[in-house]
Specification:
This protein has four helices and no strands. It is globular, with a radius of gyration of 14 Å. It is mostly helical. It has helices at 2-18, 27-46, 53-76, 78-88.
Length: 92
Amino acid sequence: MANATIDAKKANIFKTYGGSETNTGSAEAQVALLTERINHISAHIKGGNKKDHSSNLSLIKMVGQRKRLLQYMSRTNLNGYRELIAKLGLRK
């Protein structure tokens, strides 16, 4: 049952940012999915699990991956990059 809700969330993110549910490879969809996962793990760590080092390591890796994808987008599609960071609330 939990997997069904996760799959529904992913499909919704891909539909919103990638254009369709099957467009999972676009940079916009990947950044949006990583942002959702980063927010979830950040809440987990702040919620009293400060010593969860494996989650902290995965959080650092995801932030780095998102940063690389955003750099790629800023090089290739500057307008799309600006729209995406405005939608997701990044780079305040």
